Amino acid sequence: MMKKNEQNISDVEERKNWIIAALHLIINIKLGWLLTVLFLISIILYSASYFLAQSFISQLLRLFADACLSSSIIGFGYEWLIRKQSNEALSMQIKERLSDQQILYLKGLEDVIPRTLLLNPDVQKVLLVTHEKIDEIMRGALSARLGDKEMAASLYDGILKETLHYNEYFSDVKYDIILCNPDLSEPEEMRKEFFDVTINIRYRTKLKNHRFIFTRIVNNDQFNKRVSNPDYIFMFRVRETPFLPRDSDKALKIVDFKIDDYDMIPKNRINPDGAYEIVFENPELINHLDKDVNVFYSIQTKLTRLGHVFFNNAIRPTRNVTISFEWAQTDIEMVRVYDFFISANRPRIYQTPQINPHCAIVELNGWTFPKGGAVFVWRLKGESNLLDKNGNQNE
Length: 395
Description:
Number of strands: 15
Strand content: 25-35%
CATH class of the largest domain: Mainly Beta
Helix content: 40-55%
């Protein structure tokens, strides 16, 4: 396409130059004919005056002949000497001006082209083509900015490359985490060791899968094996006990799961590595891949009371997060919140109501990245006296 446009431009320029040359030729031909006619007229008048001898008409014809001859001589002299030199001088001046303008234009291009190559994303996509070239430029830019190649490589490989690995992003994520004491019908050992937890999660995303897996893990190896797999959208660690066997729905139960208005069909299984998984699929979602959807799921699980901590971390690059952590129906006395978001923005953290709070809220506007999040640490009622005896300061 570009070659065709260049050929068209070249044809137009040639046509324009030919027209200009033709006009010059016509002008030169007209001048030449006029001077030739004047010269011939002068010869004819001289001849006529010669034949008419010394009469008045002969003298008059001679005067006209002198005028025609003088005009033709002056015209030829002007045409071949003065105008030709003037045209050459004018052409030289124009060429010099054009050359100056060309130099200024090229200098401007020298500044614009490198800036365009470096900063314009569309140009980068066309010229760089491969991700490897883009990675190389990003590493070089980090190295130039930080002044340390090793730090730049660690930063890129540790955070940026890990983030670029994900092809799905969440936005406007809202977590509602509700803790309560187990029902009195539950075994006493369970009531002493665990809280019942309901986790409601809503977010928007561009759909990349039609298959989603929730899993109960019992060790870190199971977590590390799945953390990079986009099919796994929820992983929670619950210790296996006699009253919480591996496939117990008391340890992991999906109360509701919807993507827009599509209901998901669950299938339970125990993975060969021992993790309990609930797999949801809906073939109709294949037609909605790469489209914006709203996702909602509600989960019931268990949380260790004496662990005194609940971690909530991002599993995808996420924009705008709200976390609500409620403990009104428990014997938790107080909760502290610490954030470890990987984000340029600081979250807003507060508790409600102001007197005897029972809900902690974390709000982050902006992007955060996987492995960043917030941790909720609590103290149970009755533990404050114990802390005093150990010499620790109470809140």
